[in-house]
Amino acid sequence: MWTRYKMSTRALVDERILSSPYHSLIPRANMNSFYQPENVGLTGLIIRLQREDIGEVARDDEALSFALELQLQELSIVETDIADHQFANKWLWQLDCDYKLALALSNLHHEADAALLTCTGCDSRFTRHQSFKAPCDRHFFCFECLANFFEYTIGDEPLYPPKCCDIEISLDNVRKLLDDKLVARYEKKKIEYDTEPTKRTYCHGLKCNTFIPESSIENDVATCSDCGKRTCTICKEKAHRGDCPKDEDTQSLLDMAEKEGWQRCYNTKCHRVVALTIGCNHIT
């Protein structure tokens, strides 16, 4: 009903405008084109100009005035629809741009993720510059896991030396990637681990028990650099004077010397066993 009414008012306006002595319009056959969305701007301008032109007639003709008012309302609705359509197009265009941007970012993310390396220790992903390539050429360690590996080695000898696929990770290759304090502690522990267990000497102090390297041992006496205590390298007890009773080789030699009548140098710093086989009784 409302559609038919609008069509009738439009026809009335068209008829009155075309028959108006104040203005001549384009041929009637082309009137419908003025109500197309793409021509709404021109239509609005013409209708407003027409209304100004036939203002006197419209004031005397209530039907024409009412029809013109309805036509302007219809035009306003069309303009609103077009504005909404333009807004929707703009919104869809922006949505499309956002989608393309998201797609591009996603592709970049996948490309960047593909370039990352997986840490053997924690399975996290890191760039090549944030990780260490193991000597096996197959695995990588992030710097934190690499430091933890060396830290664990210090406290657990079976883990020494740190390896990946049975290939040792040399300290020289990772020195710059580790903390200086960790490197110093590892180097100290390395000396201990590289010494045969049967030849190691630890400080006899109950509260110390520090490993004493060969550089701190003289005449079977090891001096602890931490507490200063002196330990016998043979019996592993407190350093003592004379021969160590637990030195089996020395005891065997002394037993043989006693049977053979050999003598020992009276100089306590020497105390060597000597045997006179020829010459006078004076021995130097």
Query: Which sequence of SSEs, written as H and E, runs from N to C?
Result: HHHHEEEEHEEHHEEEEEHEE
What sort of overall outline do the alpha carbons produce when their principal axes are compared?
Answer: rod-shaped
- N-end to C-end Cα span: 144 Å
Tally of separate domains: 4
Gyration radius over CA? 53 Å
Q: Helix tally? A: 8
> Which stretches are low in confidence, meaning pLDDT under 50 for 5 or more residues running?
1-6, 20-29
Strand order of the largest sheet: 9-10-11
Taken as a percent bin, the fraction of beta residues is: 5-15%
Number of beta strands: 13
Structural class: mainly alpha
* Mean pLDDT level: 75
Helix content: 40-55%
Taking the sheet with the most strands, its summary is: 3 strands, antiparallel
What do these coordinates show?
With 284 residues, the chain is mainly alpha-helical. It folds into four domains: 2-86; 116-194, Zinc/RING finger domain, C3HC4 (zinc finger) (Herpes Virus-1), CATH 3.30.40; 196-242, no CATH class; 247-284, no CATH class. The protein is built from eight helices and 13 strands. The chain has helices at residues 2-18, 40-53, 55-60, 62-114, 143-155, 171-174, 180-194, 248-260, and strands at residues 117-118, 125-126, 131-133, 140-142, 163-164, 167-168, 201-202, 211-212, 217-218, 221-223, 230-232, 263-264, 273-274. The strands form six sheets. Strands 9-10-11 form a three-stranded antiparallel beta sheet, with no helix packed on it. A hairpin with a 6-residue loop joins strand 3 (131-133) and strand 4 (140-142). The termini are far apart. Mean pLDDT is 75; it is low at 1-6 and 20-29.
